[in-house]
Structures are given as C-alpha cells and as structure tokens.
Amino acid sequence: MLPLYGFFDPTYILVIAGLLISMAASAYVNTTFRKYDKVQSRNNITGTRAAQYILQTEHINDVGVQQISGDLTDNYNSGNKMLSLSEATAQSVSVAAIGVAAHECGHAVQDHKGYSPLKIRAAIVPIANIGSSLSFPIILIGVLLSWNQTLINVGIFAFSLALLFQLVTLPVEFNASRRALKILSDGNILTAEEVPMARKVLFAAALTYVAAALSTFLQLLRLVILFGGNNRRN
Predict the structure, then answer these.
(1) CA–CA distance, 234 with 231 (Å, rounded to integer)
(2) Phi and psi of 146, rounded to 5°?
(3) What is 79-116 written as a DSSP string?
C-alpha cells in the first residue's frame, strides 16, 4: 500500500500548487474584466453588434449570434456554427465586452479559414473527455489488482490526454485573440486608445488556459510519482 507519511502525502503539494495557480488566474481575469467593463466604448457598440459586424466584415454568413445566460460563459461552437455571448457581454457596450465578443469571433474566423489547431482540438475533445473520466477508475483497478502496472500505466496515459487537449487549446486561444485584436485595430469598433484595454482583457483570459494546463500537468506529475514505473508499495 502507499505510505501515509504520517497521514500526509507530500505530493498533495502539487495539487495545492495547481489549485492556487488556477485561483490566481481566475481572480486576475475577473478583476481585469470588471475594470474594463466599467469603460464604455466611445462608439457605443454592444458586444452583439460588434460580433455581427466582425462576422459580416470577414464574410462569414453561416454563423449565428445568440445571447445565453451566465457570466463570462461566451463560446463559439463550430458544430452548429453558433456564437454564444453571455449576458455580461451581449448587451454591454464596454471595452471588455467587445474584446470578449471579438475573441469568440476569432474562433469563428479560424473555423471559416480551416485553422488546423482548431480542427485538431475538436477531434481530441471526445477522446480527452473519455480519458479524463476513465483514468482514475483504471488506476484504482490496477492498484487493487495487486498493483497491475499495465493497467496503471493505461490510466496515466488516459489522463495525459486531458493535458494534450489543453496544450492544443493554447495556440487556438492565443491565435483567436490575435485575430480579434487585429480586427479591432481598424478603428470601426474600438478607438486606438481602447484597443490596448481590450488586449489586457484577452491576455488575462488567456492566462486561465495556461493555468489550466499547468494545473493538469502537476496532477499528471503527481500520478507518475505515485503510481508510475515500479512504485509498488508493499
């Protein structure tokens, strides 16, 4: 069995570190969004109108725009070609809301132009979800079956698929933000003074994906330390 180290598992430090990183990133994006959500855009354009304008400008005619409930639940679904904006974004005329709306449009532009990393991420989603949900049961079964290292390794590999998904997500998210800022820089939606504010909002949002990847990596590292190799405990 695993040693209890006096009822304390030192590898929990990795879990705590990952949790703190995620909390810090979440707090930062919320603080940054709230700050620039108070700044009304000079052109007085709502997030919904900004999204519609961007899609029209990019000659994307098969993507719908809808408002959904929640706060910062904005997303683009390439499956049904729907760009969903949260209540905090759709009807707001703030610089922050427009930045978020433009970012989601960045994903629509990626889809429209056949951006490869976006396609890869979409293909990985079901595999990563299955791997993430089955990894711990497989590892547990392996431990219960007299520490079956083959099963344990399969479980660790299954969990690593979640990390793979998050690593592929990083370039997708950063690229969407770059596309969004380039579009916003034409001055028809945000002024030259407002674009740097939107950039800060999108940078803060991107950090949450970096934090998620780091947190998952630390969890994977913990699994490898506890169960990988020949770490059988008698």
Answers:
(1) 10
(2) 55, 40
(3) TTTEEEEEHHHHT--BHHHHHHHHHHHHHHHHHHTT-H
| Distance from C-alpha of 79 to C-alpha of 102, rounded to nearest angstrom | 19
Out of 58, 87, 104, 193, the active site residue is 104
Give the domain ranges of the chain.
Answer: 12-39+94-227
Please state whether beta strands 75-77 and 82-86 pair in parallel, antiparallel, or not at all (unpaired).
Answer: antiparallel
Q: Is this prediction's pTM over 0.90?
A: no
* Gap between the Cα atoms of 88 and 92, Å rounded: 6
> Which tens digits make up the pLDDT trace of 147-195?
899 999 999 999 999 999 999 999 999 999 999 999 999 878 999 999 9
Instruction: Measure Cα distances from 173 to 72, 96, 106, 159 in Å.
Output: 15, 17, 9, 22
Give catalytic status of residue 104 as yes or no. yes
Rounded to 5 degrees, φ, ψ at 5 are 45, 45
